[in-house]
Records
---
Amino acid sequence: MVETLHIEILTDWHDVVSLEEEWNELWSRSAVRTPFQTFEWQSCWYRAFCEPGAVRLIVVRDGECLRAVLPGMLCSRRLGVLSLNSFCYAGTGQT
């Protein structure tokens, strides 16, 4: 049987906040857990380091069940004379 996964990119912090309970449930089901994976930690990180409007959170669902969250943000990079916007992972090796 092939699973259908739904991928969504959240760009509004208010939408991210609505994931708090599901996010922490996902964390509790994880085989490897660190405090850096919790909603509370990521929320603090975003408020401290992410520019307003730069939130880019990739959410993966299997039906209604949250399966993965990849925290990221919109970053500007220079490539020679070009200025590019790209997705940057919002974490460290611990997260």
---
Amino acid sequence: MLLQKKKEQTTYGIIGLGRFGHALAVELANSGAELLVIDKDEEKVRELREYTENAIIINTLDKNTLADAGIQNCDVVVVCIGEHLDSILTTLNVVGLGVPKVIAKATSLEHGEILKKLGAEVVYPEHDMAIRLAHRLETSKMLDYVQLSERLNISKFLIPRQAVGKTVLDLNLRSRFGLNIIAIEKSSRQLIDNITPQYRFEHNDILYLAGDKKGLNKLSEWAETD
């Protein structure tokens, strides 16, 4: 089935429906994205057909076959193949078809370096998950952690006991730890994204914080003293 590009929304292509590719496809489909998924495994493709009509079985990922599937009509293509040679050749073909943004999964630093040289943005799912888990294990207050760059990280942080009743101005996370509060999630699931200096923290508030790793670690150490 040839994917036809729809100008009104971003279209995504996912090549390889292993655990990473499958999870990514489901999340994008549930968000309403226009999606093309490709794999050589008939069963994996069949499972995704409840999420997108553009689910195609392809045994050979050469440039002509990918073009026939319409991969060049995608705005973003994610190559989720674990085997190095297949991953490299497929990424080369997708880039060669002129897809505006190509993201490729790498399983090692060497693999990632090759993919970068081909023009792909590289992700390391196993490495990134390990970092997130390590940070969650470091402190009982840190609920989740995402590294966006060397200097910018996003963390979900359960408000420490000693901060309850204080205002944003009192706590002064920016001055003390170099952290900015992006949003606050209440126990009622209400999300507050317009944070004033007068906001007073309550039990079970979850803070969405942005800052570097050093600041987040300092906050974690302080929180563990409660």
---
Amino acid sequence: TTCYAEYKYTGSVSRKLVQRTISGKYTNDRVTSIGSYAFYSCTALTSVDFPLVTVVGDSAFCECSKLTSINLPLVVTTNYRSFMDCSALTSVDFPSLTNLGSQSFYYCSKLRSVDLPVVTKIGEYAFSNCSALTSVDLPAVTDIASYAFTNCYKLTSLILRSETLCTLGNVNAFQRCYHILGTKNNTHNPNGDKDGYIYVPSALVESYQAATNWSTYATQFRALEDYTVDGTIIGALDETKI
């Protein structure tokens, strides 16, 4: 069954009805998919719990400006703008998600923590304008589309753990990622530091440096073994190489 927030949309009136009546925490343990625009602009919605949902439709939670907690443990696909402009969202955890649709988290300006252990594809503009995002760990990703991280001004660490070389759709995927580009910006990188790095398995560093589109960022690649936070190695690494 599909959830349309208890209403079948026939026009703007029914949509406004949902916006007015859905607030606080919303739980549903029966539906298996969430329809397009189901909770669009429900600005009083703070938490959602859908333990059986596997698919989230286009713009399903778009502009839910107070949404801070999402529980979708079985979701495997998010679609166009599923969580766009959820401006209060600080972290996401999707343990079963494999396909992150285009603009899924576009303009989630407070998003700081991302846990996507099995995602293999990052769609266009998926994290665009996530201006608070500093580090993203993507264990299984093998495909990053155009503009995926554009305007992620504070991004300093992108970790790609897959032993398969990730395809980068376009060099613009990191447009205005000032720390990876080493671009001076008065607000986000006043010194023009080129201190943003892309961490990959050590055996693939040279392959990434020469790969199509990735070669633009050749100087910013580092081996996974070099990734530390406050001197602590992150992730399950080969201790013989540390």
